[in-house]
Amino acid sequence: MISGNLVDAGVRARFDLSDRVAVITGGGGLLGAQHADAIAEMGGTPVLLDIDTRHAQDTAERVSKKYGVPAVAFSADITQAESILGTVRKVTERFGQIDILINNAARNPKQEQLKGANEGSRLEGFSVASWNDDLAVGLTGAFLCSQLIGPDMAKRGRGVILNIASDLGVIAPDQRIYRRADLPDHQQPVKPVSYSVVKHGLIGLTRYLATYWAEQGVRVNALSPGGVYTGQDKEFVARLTHLIPLGRMARQDEYKAAVVFLVSDASSYMTGMNMVMDGGRTVW
After folding, report:
1. Residue 36, H or E segment
2. What domains can you pick out in the chain, each with its CATH number?
3. Which H/E stretch holds residue 126?
4. CA 136, 81, 95, 220 torsion: positive or negative?
């Protein structure tokens, strides 16, 4: 007979990330900082990549001090293979290997940016330049990082890639939550088409990579979070939460446990999946 204590100890050990190095793209952003906390809290070493390292460096210093791990930040342009390769060399020279890749970087217009009249965000006026820039960061960047980091994981016979998608990778954006009563239809702000395409694409990339490297022990999953409350306009929050069965937006730290599960051995029999964590929004 196995005691409950022995069983519990085994379960806890599966979440342990000690001696694992996790590269997080978009490390200077809101969720990037939360991912770093999640990795460090379980003993792992977060490596934050961002084209502007100011916030990423601040996060790395805070995480190192709080959790006693050697968190670091590096400048990298994930739309350029040469930049990624240079950063990967720095990471491997310092830590020996990369065990986890979290493709988190994205260009995401905030609710505040969508408050004004903005014909340029609408499909009819959305520029090819904006389309290319958004896909370059959110989708091509994830492809390049996976292409350049994944093969070494495959050679070593283990590794985890986590793509941060969105509930808008599962459903279309409800543009009504951005509407303004004082604007005509052709000036109403909307969530741009590129955001949906990027997030849907990340889920497709997840499934492709999961089957591509399965025999080499590399697992690939996606996490599709819902909106995070950061003090947005009350009217916007009311409209959005009306669409969510739990009746609220997510707290900033509410995805940390899911990230730990997906990048640790706790999810060792899970690959190619998209974990939707959105307060139930996509159920309605």
Report:
1. helix 30-41
2. 17-112+137-173+194-230+252-283 (3.40.50.720)
3. none
4. positive
- Radius of gyration over every alpha carbon of the chain, rounded to an integer in angstroms: 19
- What tokens does 15 get? 């979440």
Is residue 169 within 8 A of residue 203, CB to CB? The reply is: yes
Q: Give kind and range of the element (H or E) at residue 263.
A: helix 256-263
Helix (H, G, I), strand (E, B) or coil at 118: coil
CB 17 within 8 A of CB 260: yes
263/102 Cα distance (integer angstroms) = 9
Cα(63)–Cα(36) distance, rounded to whole angstroms? 7
Q: Which two tokens stand for residue 62?
A: 């805070």
pLDDT digits (tens, 9 = 90+) for 160-209: 999 999 999 999 999 999 999 999 999 999 999 999 999 999 999 999 99
pLDDT-based confidence at 42, cuts 50/70/90? very high
Q: Which position has the token pair 């730990």? A: 260
Type of residue numbered 96 = G
